[in-house]
């Protein structure tokens, strides 16, 4: 492959890490007492319910996302936020599309179709779909009540170090993403295959449920051997790894059981390190699959009744970014007997589990096949991350 797409993506990655915006003021770790009575969602942390759309998997990939056309137009604003320099954006539009044909089917054709239908340049749609490999920081919880009923919930946090809005005291990228949050019902033969909370214009999956079989969320895992390296290797022609959000989508679409999903998420080579948080439909079926790009470490429920992650479970979280400790504190205060979507929403509404990066909260009940999502905000005082 020529140097064009390599240069375009490298410049985009560098620009995203050095956006010429003011840095957030340092705020010491801010925690609060575990919240209660937050559900049904209301008040200043609730910015609205998420709209549902349908993607028909029987259609050709290039035609599947046309129902979201109005929302996809906003991707152009996101591309400018990712790469604020007009010159760099021109390079992305000219050179990055050369990378598209190297991406796996059907994702490459879906991205091509989104660009064609919306008028957003192909390079910008592609860039939007790539950045999640290296820029997410989230909290996911799998919990089992005293009757063996499993629930899965998550906060999706995105936009760290990608521009701070001094006036609104928020991350620029997070602000732009909230209006793009969608719930998607993926159907084949007019029947639901899986459901997901995602962003309009994004074809990979970060949060989803295969009804009555399993639930799945993906969190980025920080590592020196991270997503940047995997993406650059892909550009240079080494393509034996899978894009992690494409793998998540493939598992949600094609796996039919918790065990099958666990095997695929554990064994598939990846471009970027990741946490795959998996919940099943039977007692004890919950695990955090902690992945490097090449191998995995499996952390299962065993005798525990709840799992939460945004760090390696065998390490202490960084004190400036510890959402795990307050999340587990609130889970323990809730107790297993009281676990429900309502109480999980309370846990995910407690600062700093809820923070300035939080775009949405999703609650999933695998046995009922239910997924519900809410757009979030974190009023001051609130941790930037």
TrEMBL record:
<dbReference type="InterPro" id="IPR029055">
    <property type="entry name" value="Ntn_hydrolases_N"/>
</dbReference>
<feature type="active site" description="Nucleophile">
    <location>
        <position position="138"/>
    </location>
</feature>
<dbReference type="InterPro" id="IPR029130">
    <property type="entry name" value="Acid_ceramidase_N"/>
</dbReference>
<keyword id="KW-0732">Signal</keyword>
<keyword id="KW-0325">Glycoprotein</keyword>
<keyword id="KW-0443">Lipid metabolism</keyword>
<dbReference type="Pfam" id="PF02275">
    <property type="entry name" value="CBAH"/>
</dbReference>
<keyword id="KW-0746">Sphingolipid metabolism</keyword>
<dbReference type="GO" id="GO:0005764">
    <property type="term" value="C:lysosome"/>
</dbReference>
<feature type="signal peptide">
    <location>
        <begin position="1"/>
        <end position="24"/>
    </location>
</feature>
<feature type="domain" description="Choloylglycine hydrolase/NAAA C-terminal">
    <location>
        <begin position="138"/>
        <end position="315"/>
    </location>
</feature>
<keyword id="KW-0458">Lysosome</keyword>
<comment type="pathway">
    <text>Sphingolipid metabolism.</text>
</comment>
<dbReference type="InterPro" id="IPR016699">
    <property type="entry name" value="Acid_ceramidase-like"/>
</dbReference>
<protein>
    <recommendedName>
        <fullName>Acid ceramidase</fullName>
        <ecNumber>3.5.1.23</ecNumber>
    </recommendedName>
</protein>
<dbReference type="GO" id="GO:0006631">
    <property type="term" value="P:fatty acid metabolic process"/>
</dbReference>
<dbReference type="GO" id="GO:0016020">
    <property type="term" value="C:membrane"/>
</dbReference>
<dbReference type="GO" id="GO:0017064">
    <property type="term" value="F:fatty acid amide hydrolase activity"/>
</dbReference>
<keyword id="KW-0378">Hydrolase</keyword>
<dbReference type="GO" id="GO:0006665">
    <property type="term" value="P:sphingolipid metabolic process"/>
</dbReference>
<dbReference type="InterPro" id="IPR029132">
    <property type="entry name" value="CBAH/NAAA_C"/>
</dbReference>
<keyword id="KW-1015">Disulfide bond</keyword>
<dbReference type="Pfam" id="PF15508">
    <property type="entry name" value="NAAA-beta"/>
</dbReference>
<dbReference type="GO" id="GO:0017040">
    <property type="term" value="F:N-acylsphingosine amidohydrolase activity"/>
</dbReference>
<keyword id="KW-0964">Secreted</keyword>
<dbReference type="GO" id="GO:0005576">
    <property type="term" value="C:extracellular region"/>
</dbReference>
<comment type="similarity">
    <text>Belongs to the acid ceramidase family.</text>
</comment>
<comment type="pathway">
    <text>Lipid metabolism; sphingolipid metabolism.</text>
</comment>
<feature type="domain" description="Acid ceramidase N-terminal">
    <location>
        <begin position="49"/>
        <end position="102"/>
    </location>
</feature>
